[in-house]
Amino acid sequence: MTTYQETRTLDLLKERSRAGGVKPIVLRRGETGQSIAVSVTNDGTAFNLTGYTASFCAVNADRGMVKRSATVSNAAGGLVTFSVTSDLTAAPGSVFVAYIELTKGSDIATTDTLPFVVLDNVDAGELDAEEYQDSIRELIAAVRSEAVAQATGAVSDALGDMQDDYEAAEAARDAAYAAAEAARCVDYVGGPFSIVDGAVNITYYEGTL
């Protein structure tokens, strides 16, 4: 099969490449043979790999251990290469534990993390055409259901806000009416008339109307 090469730079001082971020390598479940090149540095300077043995170590997305020999392609330049194997891409998901291990006698050094993302695939041996179509329909239905649920929730929230605003407006209106009524019903006595509990009494010389 045709292979391609992805190149990443990993530092022995783990915090250096983590601070800048290392771009994940994206594969698909079951893919193998892709060539990966890693430029190993030490505090940003190419690390001389003369006399070192290199290995690729990882824990795949299904929590399985992966350890394969790697090739020191350019010792002075710190270049290590390895090929993707089926144990790395056995399960879809993110691979957060992956690095190059370097050994020289009793010395062991490791690089920062080399992240992978393994996408799922359609396995013809597991799904026939009708089953695949059914799975796609189920996925579409699930996406639609989630979209409807989110839209319904948004509408419900909006209606709730409108109800709260309406109730607040009604309460303000009732308070205004009550204030007006209270003002109207203030007792007043003076001159030829008086207001008591909202009733107007007019006093004439002949009597009270």
Give me the secondary-structure topology.
Blueprint (H helix, E strand, L loop, with lengths): L4 E7 L2 H7 L4 E4 L6 E8 L2 E2 L6 E7 L5 E10 L4 E5 L9 E3 L1 E8 L2 E4 L5 E4 L9 H56 L3 E3 L2 E4 L2 E4 L7
Parallel strand pairs: 1-3, 2-11
Antiparallel strand pairs: 3-4, 3-7, 5-6, 5-9, 6-7, 8-11, 9-10, 12-13, 13-14
- Strand count: 14
Strand content: 25-35%
Low-confidence parts: 204-209
Order of helices and strands: EHEEEEEEEEEEHEEE
The amount of helix comes to: 25-40%
N-C termini distance: 113 Å
Radius of gyration: 39 Å
Shape estimate: elongated
Number of distinct helices: 2
CATH class of the domain at 5-119: Mainly Beta
Description:
- This protein has 209 residues and is of the alpha+beta class.
- It has a domain at 5-119: Immunoglobulin-like.
- Helix content is 30%, strand content 35%.
- Strand 3 and strand 4 (45-46) form a beta hairpin.
- The N and C termini lie far apart (113 Å).
Label this structure with key terms.
single chain; 209 residues; alpha+beta; Immunoglobulin-like; 8-stranded mixed sheet; 3-stranded mixed sheet; 2 helices; 30% helix
Question: Quick summary of this structure?
Answer:
The protein is of the alpha+beta class.
